[in-house]
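Sequence only, no structure available. Ideas?
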Amino acid sequence: MPERKNYYDILGVSEKASAAEIKKVYRKLAQQYHPDRNPDKPGAEEKFKAVQEAYSVLSDAEKRKEYDRMRKNPFGAFDGTFTAANGDRFYRAPDGTFVRYSSPNEPSEFGDVGEIFGDALGGIGDFFSRMFTNEGPRNPRPPASTQTVLQLSFDQALQGGKTEIALPDGAKVRLTIPKGVRDGFKIRLKEQGRPGPDGRRGDVYVTFKVASHPRFRREEDDLYATESINAIEAMLGTTRGLVNPYGKRIKVSVPAGTQPGAKLRLKGQGVRTPQHTGDLYVEIQVTVPQNLTAAQRDALRKAAEAAGLV
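Reply:
I predicted one. Tokens follow.
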């Protein structure tokens, strides 16, 4: 008989593990090996299937009881009658021997266990294979997935919209760019890739590559920009007008006494996504005039002396 699967080893639990413990371990392993989270990891999908199979048996009290009994004595699990592939019917006697019926209700001769089960494999062998071996029926190997990168400008990523991409094999696929998508974000286009040997199409995984912006820097859904003012404006306060990435003109009020490097927060002026809107932070850079005339320096000195600043 082929080597049986050990479902306890697959889940990494003991044979005495409780139902709650088995469920907890299964959830952790299912998340760890899920194909959507491991598109480039060889063997993850097979491991995921093995974990699912093990849990389907060990999470069901009756299936687990039957599984435990068959692991200890696979033939002893059949206490009633069964029909072999050649049509002969058998039942298991109390002493462990198998009796062949000559009529539906009358046992006539005892059979050798190995011989009987050799004939009977057509009837029960598939059951053993499906339940406990690696040699049972398998699903066809899934078609390979396709990986591709979509280059976006900063503005395209903010606005989102529809586009069309060309796959490595030349096929065209339409997709929706999520509004406010971030650099490195990946989406899955289910069954839109190349067809496999059985005709089923594989998935397409698209990674978004977003270009930088000359003025704005993005962190999560917040935007950052730098605005320069001179030392006098920093001391007295001033205002600045700027245009945000969505084309809206906004006014920035710089309070008197603003220090170099201060960040002014403009709430709700950052990246807009379907779930959230970020803020815009304006970092103040203070510059010192270098080309003052003698008259300007003299005027500033007198003003500073009069105000007690020097």
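The first strand starts at residue 81 and ends at 83.
Hope that gets you unstuck.
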